[in-house]
């Protein structure tokens, strides 16, 4: 019975030999992944081992063994970067457009609102980083993969304009699947709108810092995410525009290993520095202090 179960998991049993007194069982990763209670353990994709879930959660969702950074809730990221009780969220009265009458779009949005208790895929406001005032926007990967529709675009644009009008720096933490396809062309227009707003900051020589977190892709990468004066990233972040398979098919070439990771992009000069989550606030403070 055991043998049957193991063989169905592509595992192997070594036979008893003269040198080998006991039967040894080698288990493949697939079997290991499924073999423990996932209420308490996480199978870490970085160190390919089981890590106590609580140890990861208490370490800002970072694996204490191998430093793999897992997703952090948007509200937790605000708390991580901004001084306690200093964050004032901007209030918006914006409703989602459904220009294409995309099937089930509004229902989907409503279910995300209920699930996340958030109104949209980004949190924007003003607060202090070790007593330095700044505008902060944090994209919410739990809300429709942090996709950028017209409301997300409006909120980012407002935040940038607020920073420009009040002579404040702005930090945007990205985490997004890209433009929200359910809004078609309107979502793509947000790329131009946010980029244009950033030119106002440029005119006033105000610093714009982006923090890229996993994943930062599509129209978000192709607009405000990569326009930071200083571009920071967390380790093992996926950063790209189109998916690797699409690129390979288009250029008819095999892509190098690690393509679209923060580490690869740092090596090729697309980002400025990779910062561990626990050090991010200090890094932001140092940059803001310099300005
Ligand atoms: Zn790990």
TrEMBL record:
GO terms for biological process: fatty acid biosynthetic process; malonyl-CoA biosynthetic process. Residues 40-291 form the CoA carboxyltransferase N-terminal domain. It is found in: Cytoplasm. Binds 1 zinc ion per subunit. It catalyses: N(6)-carboxybiotinyl-L-lysyl-[protein] + acetyl-CoA = N(6)-biotinyl-L-lysyl-[protein] + malonyl-CoA. InterPro entries: AcCoA_carboxyl_beta (IPR034733), Acetyl_CoA_COase_Trfase_b_su (IPR000438), ClpP/crotonase-like_dom_sf (IPR029045), COA_CT_N (IPR011762), Znf-ACC (IPR041010). GO terms for cellular component: acetyl-CoA carboxylase complex. Coiled coil: none annotated. Zn(2+) binds at residues 44, 47, 63, 66. Its cofactor is Zn(2+). A zinc finger (C4-type) spans 44-66. It comes from the Bacteria. GO terms for molecular function: acetyl-CoA carboxylase activity; ATP binding; carboxyl- or carbamoyltransferase activity; zinc ion binding. Pathway: Lipid metabolism; malonyl-CoA biosynthesis; malonyl-CoA from acetyl-CoA: step 1/1. Its EC number is 2.1.3.15. Pfam families: Carboxyl_trans (PF01039), Zn_ribbon_ACC (PF17848). Keywords: ATP-binding, Cytoplasm, Fatty acid biosynthesis, Fatty acid metabolism, Lipid biosynthesis, Lipid metabolism, Metal-binding, Nucleotide-binding, Transferase, Zinc, Zinc-finger. Component of the acetyl coenzyme A carboxylase (ACC) complex. Biotin carboxylase (BC) catalyzes the carboxylation of biotin on its carrier protein (BCCP) and then the CO(2) group is transferred by the transcarboxylase to acetyl-CoA to form malonyl-CoA. NCBIfam families: accD. Belongs to the AccD/PCCB family. Acetyl-CoA carboxylase is a heterohexamer composed of biotin carboxyl carrier protein (AccB), biotin carboxylase (AccC) and two subunits each of ACCase subunit alpha (AccA) and ACCase subunit beta (AccD). This is Acetyl-coenzyme A carboxylase carboxyl transferase subunit beta. The lineage of its organism: Bacteria, Bacillati, Bacillota, Clostridia, Peptostreptococcales. The gene is accD.
């Amino acid at each position: 019975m055991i043998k049957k179960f193991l063989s169905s998991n592509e595992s192997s049993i070594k036979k008893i030999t003269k040198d080998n007194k006991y039967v040894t069982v080698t288990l493949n990763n697939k079997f290991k992944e499924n073999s423990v209670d996932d209420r308490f353990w996480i199978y870490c994709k970085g160190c390919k081992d089981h890590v106590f879930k609580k140890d990861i959660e208490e370490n800002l969702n970072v694996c204490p063994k191998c430093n793999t950074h897992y997703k952090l809730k948007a509200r937790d990221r605000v708390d991580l970067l901004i001084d306690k009780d200093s964050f004032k969220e901007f209030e918006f009265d914006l409703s989602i457009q459904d220009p294409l009458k995309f099937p089930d779009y509004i229902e989907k949005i409503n279910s995300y609102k209920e699930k996340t208790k958030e109104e949209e895929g980004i949190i924007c406001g003003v607060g202090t980083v070790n007593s330095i005032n700044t505008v902060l926007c944090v994209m919410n990967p739990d809300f429709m993969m942090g996709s950028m529709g017209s409301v997300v675009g409006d909120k980012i644009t407002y935040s940038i304009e607020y920073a420009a009008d009040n002579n404040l720096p702005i930090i945007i933490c990205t985490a997004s699947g890209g433009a929200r396809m359910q809004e078609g062309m309107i979502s793509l227009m947000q790329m131009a709108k946010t980029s244009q707003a950033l030119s106002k900051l440029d005119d006033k020589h105000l610093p714009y810092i982006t923090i890229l977190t996993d994943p930062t892709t599509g129209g978000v990468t192709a607009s405000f995410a990569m326009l930071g004066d200083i571009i920071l990233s967390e380790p093992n972040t996926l950063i790209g525009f189109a998916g690797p398979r699409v690129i390979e098919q288009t250029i008819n070439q095999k892509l190098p290993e690690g393509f679209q990771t923060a580490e690869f992009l740092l090596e090729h000069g697309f980002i400025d520095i990779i910062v561990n989550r626990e050090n991010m606030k200090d890094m932001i403070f140092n940059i803001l202090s310099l300005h």
